[in-house]
Design brief:
Elements lengths: L6 E3 L5 E3 L7 E7 L8 H12 L4 E7 L11 H12 L4 E2 L12 H9 L14 E4 L5 E5 L9 H8 L1
Parallel strand pairs: 3-4, 4-5
Antiparallel strand pairs: 1-2, 3-6, 6-7
Length: 158
């Protein structure tokens, strides 16, 4: 199994095969609009603006599992992110990242890079860097700011 075997739902409910992203460097992030880390959207957008022309994509998965910090519909979340942060990278449907209803993609990501809590996501804005070949390269804690990942992204793009 690889990351390209998964199909996820976008924020309009459409199926998106991750096979569509083969050959690109991905940053997969579980996000929330009411979290203390929400300002990281600015840094994520900066990275996207800088590296998208080189084959970099950010896949944004809103998650309401941590203290209900991603309330609202997918449309409301997208409107907030575009209006407040100017987000232009791909947003997906709201998911769960832990527990029996966790998104299968996240079960896979956690199995590849466990993190401090083992196979659990600690909080929103946990980030997974995926190489062009679909290998999960790194896992970054919510406290790691987008700009702190820039060298790893540049290296993955080479």
């Amino acid at each position: 199994m690889t990351i390209y075997d998964f199909v996820v739902k976008d924020n309009k409910g459409n199926d998106v095969p991750l096979e569509n992203y083969r050959g690109k460097v991905l940053l997969i992030v579980n996000t929330a609009t009411g979290c203390g880390f929400t300002p990281q959207y600015d840094g994520l957008q900066d990275l996207y603006d800088r590296y998208a022309p080189q084959g970099f994509e950010i896949l944004d998965f809103p998650c309401n599992q941590f203290l209900g910090q991603a309330p609202g519909t997918s449309d409301e979340i997208a409107e907030f992110c575009k209006g407040r942060f100017g987000i232009t990278f791909k947003q997906f449907g709201k998911i769960k990242v832990n527990g029996k209803d966790a998104e299968p993609l996240y079960e896979y990501l956690k199995s590849q890079k466990g993190g401090v809590l083992g196979k659990r996501i600690k909080w929103n804005f946990t980030k997974f860097l995926v190489g062009k070949d679909g290998t999960v390269l790194s896992r970054f804690a919510p406290t790691v700011k987008p700009e702190e990942m820039e060298e790893a992204i540049k290296e993955a793009l080479q």
